[in-house]
């Protein structure tokens, strides 16, 4: 009986122990389930964004699609600045360190671009979530890596700017991120830049990328284009002739502007030295200044046109009037004015033809301070032209209240104030246009990607500076004889009547005109003299081998205008002539060779065709340009075939 009781007690004890064990197991299971539920809750609710982001990075990628920057055209539709599609690769260093293998990613880039693994590993060791791995890769070279890039690596389609290397100081540049930093690229950046798009890519199980659903995509919108008044052919001619002049006379710099006198359209605006627009390392402040609007100088004898116009209206001065020229030396308030030729007396016409400073000074004093100042201001001096270019200045013209006793006579022959080359040209264009001063302009309009005009700019009359008959009298009696038999003889154009004026102005340096003997040589003129259409100014700064404008600047004007006429059928027709030598000049019609390194073969061929050139190549057209036989910026006859070397899989070898 006791034994049975003990057995029952043991069974009871075992039952309790089993219950305890079962309870412990149930509790542990419940705790395990709670942990799982908590973890799921944590993943799906509390840390959902973290894991979504991580998963997204594994199979989905957003790519910013940079909008195509608007094209800059010349007046004929030739592309002066154009964007070409490139690809830039970036990485998320933190993600790659946590989820991937920096060494493996570096090996991929090393294989594609030929640089060491260490080069890319150093990038991937940087702190943060973003680093550029490669910039501005040609599409042909980037295609394979775009389709199979490692996790943590993305790419961005970008637009890289390419230029014809004309009008560098006018057009300006963009930086590596396609933002305008100078010239019209900067002034019209908002209009040119367009609207970036977003492309969402997903990765398949095999690792291939494909575009996500269309509702996730945002297309980029191309920026507006700019249509300039510049003529690329005329611009190339002016740039080439300025370069020759600077080298021939060992000058510091040269500037040239060509303008339609009836509309104010700028057909060319050039400066030398210039810079390679496709090589940012060549961009220097000295080369980038648009001296036509940013630099002011004392114009000297070119200003005598204003003196002559004022004398005609205010004094009733006639070309045949005989005047005392004081045998080449005249003292005004203890200061001496000299002429380079000595005359006892001369007619006013001869005073202009021989560029007499004495007669100009005496005439200004006869006109009087207030009237002479009014005419000077009326011709636009002391105020900006309003051409719409960054950095334009208005020169310095003091009011009569600030003058001393010698200011007025010195003003008479172009000293005691400063002006930009464009201001001087605008004044001459007014005389050419029967006294009607037009505002110079260089942007003709804004156009969309289909070529439709969005905004148009046109001719604007500023004011009537003198009567039409006064302007005609000054042209016929003074400016045309200066070219026919005076200091401007070297500016003559065969078969065309030319009117204009030379100016050889001594520069004020370190407070003195005497110590360093630096000069500015200029010629301003227009043609045809009987019915003017085109005006131009040529200015050569500090020529050392010669300095008289008749020798330095006037011949440049003649060459520019002769070549311009020869290469323009409409201009030849309007002149009703065929200039001698026109056929020969036609054969010398030249264009600038663009920068091609880094472009794929098709883009290079397209850019050359825009420039009026052909392409001969070695290698496969799908390859990348690694060399060109003719240097960027060289002037060659239109239609020349440029030899380029193309190589597959090679990175760009020249920085920009």
Describe this structure in words.
The protein has about 650 residues and is an alpha+beta fold. The protein has 4 domains: about 1-45; about 60-230, Alpha-Beta Complex (Penicillin-binding protein 2a (Domain 2)); about 230-585, DD-peptidase/beta-lactamase superfamily (Beta-lactamase), CATH 3.40.710; about 595-645, 2-Layer Sandwich (Trypsin Inhibitor V, Chain A). The protein contains 24 helices and 26 strands. Strands 2, 3, 4, 5, 8, 16 and 17 form a 7-stranded mixed sheet that branches. Strands 10-9-21-20-19 form a 5-stranded antiparallel sheet, sandwiched between helices. A 3-stranded antiparallel sheet has the order 1-6-7. Helix 10 (about 230-250) packs antiparallel against helix 21, helix 13 packs across helix 15 and helix 13 crosses helix 19. The longest helix is centred in the N-terminal third of the chain and has 45 residues, at about 1-45. Mean pLDDT is about 85; it is low at about 580-590 and about 650-655.
């Amino acid at each position: 009986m006791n034994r049975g009781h003990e057995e029952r007690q043991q069974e009871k004890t075992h039952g309790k122990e089993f219950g305890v064990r079962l309870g412990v197991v149930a509790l542990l299971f419940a705790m395990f389930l709670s942990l799982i539920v908590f973890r799921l809750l944590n993943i799906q609710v509390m840390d959902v964004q973290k894991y979504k982001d991580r998963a997204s990075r594994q199979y989905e990628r957003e790519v910013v699609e940079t909008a195509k920057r608007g094209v800059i055209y010349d007046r004929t539709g030739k592309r002066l600045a154009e964007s070409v599609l490139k690809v830039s690769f970036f990485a998320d260093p933190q993600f790659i360190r946590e989820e991937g293998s920096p060494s493996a990613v570096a090996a991929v880039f090393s294989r594609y671009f030929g640089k060491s693994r260490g080069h890319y590993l150093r990038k991937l060791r940087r702190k943060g979530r973003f680093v550029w791995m490669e910039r501005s890769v040609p599409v042909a070279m980037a295609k394979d890596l775009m389709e199979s890039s490692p996790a943590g690596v993305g790419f961005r389609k970008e637009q890289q700017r390419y230029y014809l290397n004309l009008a560098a100081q006018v057009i300006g540049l963009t930086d590596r991120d396609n933002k305008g930093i100078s010239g019209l690229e900067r002034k019209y950046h908002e209009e040119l830049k367009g609207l970036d798009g977003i492309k969402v890519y997903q990765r398949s199980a095999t690792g291939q990328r494909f575009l996500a659903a269309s509702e996730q995509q945002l297309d980029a919108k191309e920026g507006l284009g700019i249509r300039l008044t510049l003529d690329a052919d005329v611009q190339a001619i002016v740039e080439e002739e300025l370069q020759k002049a600077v080298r021939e006379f060992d000058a510091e710099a040269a500037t040239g502007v060509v303008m339609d006198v009836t509309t104010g359209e700028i057909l060319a605006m050039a400066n030398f030295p210039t810079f390679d627009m496709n090589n940012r390392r060549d961009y220097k402040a000295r080369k980038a200044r648009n001296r036509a609007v940013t630099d002011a100088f004392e114009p000297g004898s070119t200003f005598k046109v204003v003196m002559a116009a004022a004398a005609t209206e205010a004094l009733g001065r006639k070309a045949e009037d005989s005047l005392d020229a004081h045998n080449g030396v005249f003292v005004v308030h203890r200061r001496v004015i000299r002429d380079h030729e000595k005359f006892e007396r001369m007619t006013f016409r001869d005073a202009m033809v021989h560029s007499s400073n004495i007669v100009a000074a005496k005439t200004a004093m006869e006109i009087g301070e207030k009237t002479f100042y009014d005419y000077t201001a009326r011709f636009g001096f002391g105020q900006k032209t309003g051409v719409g270019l960054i950095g334009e200045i208005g020169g310095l013209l003091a009011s009569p209240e600030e003058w001393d006793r010698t200011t007025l006579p010195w003003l008479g022959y172009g000293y005691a104030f400063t002006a930009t080359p464009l201001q001087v040209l605008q004044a001459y264009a007014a005389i050419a246009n029967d006294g009607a001063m037009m505002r110079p302009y260089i942007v003709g309009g804004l156009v969309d990607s289909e070529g439709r005009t969005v905004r148009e700019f046109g001719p604007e009359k500023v004011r009537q500076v003198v009567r039409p008959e006064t302007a005609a009298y000054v042209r016929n009696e003074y400016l045309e004889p200066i070219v026919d038999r005076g200091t401007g003889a070297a500016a003559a154009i065969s078969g065309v009547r030319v009117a204009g004026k030379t100016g050889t102005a001594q520069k004020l340096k370190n407070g003195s005109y005497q110590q360093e003997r630096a000069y500015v040589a200029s010629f301003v003129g227009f043609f045809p003299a009987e019915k003017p259409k085109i005006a131009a100014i040529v200015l050569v700064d500090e020529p050392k081998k010669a300095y008289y404008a008749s020798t330095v600047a006037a011949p440049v004007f003649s060459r520019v205008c002769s070549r311009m006429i020869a290469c323009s059928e409409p201009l030849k027709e309007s002149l009703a002539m065929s200039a001698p030598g026109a056929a020969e000049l036609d054969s010398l019609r030249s264009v600038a060779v663009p920068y091609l390194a880094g472009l794929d073969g098709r883009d290079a061929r397209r850019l050359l065709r825009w420039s009026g050139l052909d392409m001969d190549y070695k290698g496969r057209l799908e390859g990348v340009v690694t060399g060109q036989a003719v240097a960027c910026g060289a002037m060659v006859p239109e239609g020349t075939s440029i030899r380029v070397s193309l190589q597959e899989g090679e990175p760009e070898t020249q920085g920009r």
